[in-house]
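User: Um, any thoughts?
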Amino acid sequence: MDENRHIKKEAVLDALEKSLGVVTTAVKSVGVARSTYYKWLKEDEDFAKKVKDIENIALDFAESQLHSQMSNGNTSATIFYLKTKGKKRGYIEKSELDITSGEEPIKINVNIDGVEY
């Protein structure tokens, strides 16, 4: 990889961290096209891993802000937390079914009146 591209990638990563993962803000501040960013993301495993790490940092920050709001008595923040993290304890408004299986095909067996379909 040429040195200039490496420097641009590092600058984008720094800007991405400062913007808490907001791509448009990061690439504009560095002067890189969004299409270039997504090309790097697709073609450069190391760059993609670093972007994922920044996304996790931004998520950690958001969670810390949510916890802070809950500590300050923000009822909406508490309700949001319970609806998202407390589902297994019954804090839901509707039932959800997650049928994802990664890369494997999904097999569903249905039994109606003793007949397997």
The chain has a mean pLDDT of 90. The chain is about 60% helix and 5% strand. Residues 3-92 form one domain.
